[in-house]
Fold this sequence. Notes:
By secondary structure, the chain is an alpha/beta fold.
Amino acid sequence: MSNSSVKDQSKNSIKIGLLGLGNVGVEVARILEEESSDLSVRSGAPLEIVKVGVRDGSKPRPQFSKNLITQDLQSIVTDPEISIVIEVMGGIEPARTLILTALANKKSVVTANKALLAKHGSELYQAAHENGVDLYYEAAVAGAIPILRPLRESIVGDHVTRIMGIVNGTTNYILTKMDEEGADYHQVLKEAQKLGFAEADPSADVEGEDAAAKLAILASLAFHSEVRGEDVFCQGISHLTSHDIDIAKAIGHVIKLLAIAERGDDGQISVRVHPALIPRSHPLASVRNSFNAVFVEAKSAGEMMFYGRGAGGEPTASAVLGDLVAIARHISFGGLGSRESGYANLAIAPIGTVFTRYLIRLDVADRPGVLATVANTFANHKVSIQTVRQSGRGEDAELVVMTHAATDRDLSATVASLSELEIVKKVESVLRVEGVES
Length: 438
Ligand code: HSE
């Protein structure tokens, strides 16, 4: 290409500022360069990264020209030449302020920052709207899987009743290994860290916070209501034992960390992340290793499942680039993406009122009358038992009780009463059961 045509191309190109050069940022830059001619045609103009903002300037980045990289992140979001900012640095600050500044400077933004959106989504969506620019974030939930655009656009004419997702790859990998190899939680976590599937500090993943942030974003779109990460009831997987997995297996179930948002008959929405048994016949049971899937139920469409890679630099970059091209098309040909709507303003149901089935494992004395006392305790709290299994253990026995649907409040009261019984040595575990009619 001659010097003058390079100049012409640069003059007409859509200028992009990239904030963050981790796994995702590097892949976004690589794909943009490798696929530049196709992406230019699809976008209506060449796409050109003109600045890359990093916090640590000392890291070697041989694939990037020195002129491109800056530690002055503010200079990117205020640069009049830049029309689109891609934020893939993560964290709440300075990401929030940088995005707000970019929007105030009439730049459209693509972000993969689930924690930020789950906390400050409304403020950011409003700022994008007021400034007449786009804010897209497909990569923030379930990596490469297109799920936000379907919720915002394809099924916006339907009435979503429930979303049930496996939206954290780390925990799904751990649970898959526990299920398929009979491995212990701590052992698998260590292996996952060695293989790079789990972070050195895995708490946001294994305690469910990452999934809760993603669920808040999904629920907000699905139910046209503001749902924040802090609204989501959240329980992780670190307390699960291989015995829990074995019991689930014995009754034809598998344990998954589920992110569930559902609309109750009372018009409230319940949002929760917790491990749960699901039947092996349920579509989500076949989602293995670090894959993600989101199962959506809507009044007219019925059941749908979106499946794919939920993490990793390249898959996440695919979602970022999809948003980038969509915004670039708006710049080239006019238009603006559809905005979030919070008109329904549905209230969040307190977890105590949410109905689920439960599996309770009790370590009890093995003598006459024990079963009757245990059954009475459930009955006293109006929790209906579906099945009881007992296995002997010398003087002791293990009782595994499956309930019909009960509220969290009634179940918790039942468990508290069971714990006080002299014949109950220990309430070993309490797990929810999903994916079956109550
Ligand atoms: N840590 C997440 C996971 C990916 O394990 O799925 C980024 O959200």
